[in-house]
Amino acid sequence: MNDRLPHEKGFHVSWDQIHRDSRALAWRLDHKGPGEDGAWKAIVAITRGGMAPAMIVARELDVRTVDTISVKSYAHQDQHEAEVLKKPDDAMMGDGTGILVVDDLVDTGRTLELVRKLYPKAHFACIYAKPEGAKQTDDYVTTVSQDTWIFFPWDMALQYAPPYRGTDA
Ligand SMILES: O=P(O)(O)OC[C@H]1O[C@H](OP(=O)(O)OP(=O)(O)O)[C@H](O)[C@@H]1O
Ligand code: HPA
Ligand SMILES: [Mg+2]
C-alpha cells in the first residue's frame, strides 16, 4: 500500500466512452506522422491498457502495423518499479521515428518515461492524463485530477447497486 490510496474520486469509463475518446485521439493524431500525407509508420500499444485504444486509433488512421511493448508497473493500485517485459523488433523501432506509442492513461509518468528512454523520437499519446505525468505525453484527450482513479470497462462488471434508501437498512 502507499499514499496513493484511498482514491476517493472515481472516474468510471464505459466502452462507449473509451471508443469515443479513442476516436477523438485518432482525430488529433491524423496527418501528424512523418510519412506521406502525415501517415504513421506503426502503432505500438503499451500493454495491456493501451491495446484497446491502439486498435481503435489504428483502425481510424489505417495503420496496419501494430505491435506491443509490455510494461508492468502496477499490481492493483500499488505502483512498483516499472519493468519492460517485452519489446517490439529493434529494426522496426529504431529511435522511434514515425512510431506512435499509445497508452490508456498516464498517471505518474513513469511508464512513459521508461518507454521514451528506449524510443526518444517516438510520438506518445494517451487517452487520459493526470497532471503529474501529463508532460510525458505528446497528446491526450482528457485530464483528471491526480487523486482520481480511472476505472476502465475491462476492469468492471455490471452488478446490482442498492437504492439510496435501502429497504432492509
Ligand atoms: O504513469 P504511470 O504512473 O506509470 O501509470 C500509467 C500506467 O499504469 C497502467 O498500466 P499497468 O502497469 O497497471 O498495467 P496494465 O496496462 O496491464 O493494466 C496504465 O495502463 C498505464 O500504462
Ligand atoms: O487511475 C488509474 N486507473 C487504472 N489504472 C491505472 N494505473 C495507474 N493509474 C491508473
Ligand atoms: Mg498500462
Automatic annotation (TrEMBL):
Domain Phosphoribosyltransferase residues, every copy: 14-160
Origin superkingdom: Bacteria
Gene3D superfamilies found in the cross-reference section: 3.40.50.2020
Membrane topology according to the record: Peripheral membrane protein
Protein name, UniProt field: Xanthine-guanine phosphoribosyltransferase
Gene Ontology biological-process entries: GMP salvage; purine ribonucleoside salvage; XMP salvage
Recorded GO CC terms: plasma membrane
InterPro entries per the UniProt record, alphabetical: PRTase-like, PRTase_dom, Xanthine_Guanine_PRibTrfase
Name of one Pfam family that matches: Pribosyltran
Reaction catalysis annotation: IMP + diphosphate = hypoxanthine + 5-phospho-alpha-D-ribose 1-diphosphate; GMP + diphosphate = guanine + 5-phospho-alpha-D-ribose 1-diphosphate; XMP + diphosphate = xanthine + 5-phospho-alpha-D-ribose 1-diphosphate
Amino-acid positions noted as binding guanine in the UniProt annotation, renumbered to this chain: 107, 150
EC number: 2.4.2.22
Pathway note: Purine metabolism; XMP biosynthesis via salvage pathway; XMP from xanthine: step 1/1; Purine metabolism; GMP biosynthesis via salvage pathway; GMP from guanine: step 1/1
Cofactor: Mg(2+)
Binding annotation for 5-phospho-alpha-D-ribose 1-diphosphate: 48-49, 103-111
Residues annotated for Mg(2+) binding in this entry: 104
Subunit-structure text: Homotetramer.
SUPFAM superfamilies noted in UniProt: PRTase-like
Subcellular location: Cell membrane
Record keywords, A-Z: Cell membrane, Glycosyltransferase, Magnesium, Membrane, Metal-binding, Purine salvage, Transferase
